[in-house]
Amino acid sequence: MRRHAPAVHRLAASTVGPGAADDVVQEVFIAAHRGLKTFRGEAQFSTWLHRVTLNACAHALRRRTALPLDGLPEPAAPHSPARAGEQAQVRERLAQALATLSPEQREALTLREIAGLDYAEISAVTGAELGTVKSRIARGRAALRAWLTRAGVRADD
């Protein structure tokens, strides 16, 4: 639990928002404990745990009516109050942009950019073919870039 909790929390916070992430993490480890007997060892334990986390996040999102606008983790230490406010606005816009993606694109991008999984691991977690994963990530990035450009977010923000 100590080894995997930070990654599980990051993934949950990016998916359901920081406010609900603690509850999701708790659900993940309860589900993992109960389901450990179903882990066959065909994939890495962390890959299986990411799938359990995504399932718990999906369950938490179904219980709510809308995606969070505060879905990204807070910066570790803002340099100034003005900069912190700017970062909060960018995070809010990014969360709004993520909400416009298909669930499959959002899942693949979150696993890649937030959880730091490689394409093969994402394929194993989602059950999608490697080419499909690459496609979802590329299309998701393009859609995010277009949405953020229309929203006035520049690369240097």
From TrEMBL:
Lineage: superkingdom: Bacteria
GO biological process assignments: DNA-templated transcription initiation
CDD domains according to UniProt: Sigma70_r4
Domain RNA polymerase sigma-70 region positions:
2-65
| Listed Pfam families | Sigma70_r2, Sigma70_r4_2
Transcription regulation listed as a keyword: yes
> Which residues does the annotated region (Disordered) include?
70-89
* GO molecular function annotation: DNA binding; sigma factor activity
Q: Where is the RNA polymerase sigma factor 70 region 4 type domain?
A: 91-144
Listed A to Z, the keywords are: DNA-binding, Sigma factor, Transcription, Transcription regulation
**InterPro entries, alphabetized:** RNA_pol_sigma-70-like, RNA_pol_sigma-70_dom, RNA_pol_sigma70_r2, RNA_pol_sigma70_r4_t2, RNA_pol_sigma_r2, RNA_pol_sigma_r3/r4-like, WH-like_DNA-bd_sf
- Family in the record: Belongs to the sigma-70 factor family. ECF subfamily.
Name by which UniProt lists this protein? Putative RNA polymerase, sigma-24 subunit, ECF subfamily
State the organism of origin: Deinococcus gobiensis (strain DSM 21396 / JCM 16679 / CGMCC 1.7299 / I-0)
**What is the gene called?**
sig3
